Amino acid sequence: MVTTLLDARRARHIAAQVPDPEMPMLTLADLGVLRDVEVREDGTVVASLTPTYSGCPAMAEMRAEVAARLTDAGYARVEIRTVLTPPWSSDWITPAGRAKLAESGIAPPGAAPRGPVELTLSPTRRTVACPRCGATDTEETSRFAATSCKALWRCRACREPFEYVKEI
Amino acid sequence: MSDDHVYLSLAEGHDDSDARWAFGTGFEDPLHGVDQSVPEGTDTAQLAAYCLALGDDALVSAQRLAQWCTAAPELEEEVALANIGLDLLGQTRLLYARAGQVDGTGRGEDAYAYFRDADAFRNVRLAELPNGDFAFSITRLLVLSSWRLALFERLAVTTSDPVLAAIAAKGVKELAYHRQYAAEWAVRLGDGTEESQRRMRDALAAVAPYVDELFAETGELKAEVLAVLRQVTDAAGLAWPETAPVPGHGRDGDHTEHLVPLLTELQSVARAHPEATW
Ligand SMILES: [Zn+2]
Question: What 3-state DSSP class applies to B36?
Answer without folding.
Answer: coil
